[in-house]
Design a protein that fits this description.
mainly alpha; about 10% strand
């Protein structure tokens, strides 16, 4: 597994094995199945100078269509960053909620 994919899956708490994700990983734009972990700032756009390209702030899951339509165009970077920021915030709420539910189950025994 590529480093940026591993960083994304670990941060977002998605499960995976040697073959890839073991659960549905949604495209951050449309919600369909994501097939790529996209670098918002890629090396060609000066990503290695602006931000560590493999940090979660620079990684987003995209389906093939959205990756082709929006992925490598500088004019979409700001919009992708905002979509990603909101997606991460919502995912962190989900993760927290899952943990609270799990703690309730454990503590009720």
């Amino acid at each position: 597994m590529k480093k940026h994919t591993e960083v994304y899956f670990n941060f977002m708490k998605y499960t995976y094995d040697n073959y890839g994700p073991t659960e549905h990983v949604p495209c951050e734009i449309c919600g369909n199945k994501a097939v790529d972990i996209h670098h918002i700032y890629n090396r060609g756009m000066g990503g290695s100078k602006k931000v560590d390209v493999n940090q979660i702030q620079n990684l987003m899951a995209l389906c093939r269509k959205d990756h082709v339509d929006y992925g490598d165009y500088p004019e979409y970077v700001d919009k992708l960053k905002e979509i990603h920021r909101l997606f991460v915030a919502n995912r962190l709420k989900e993760i927290k909620s899952m943990g609270e539910k799990w703690n309730t189950v454990i503590n009720s025994n």
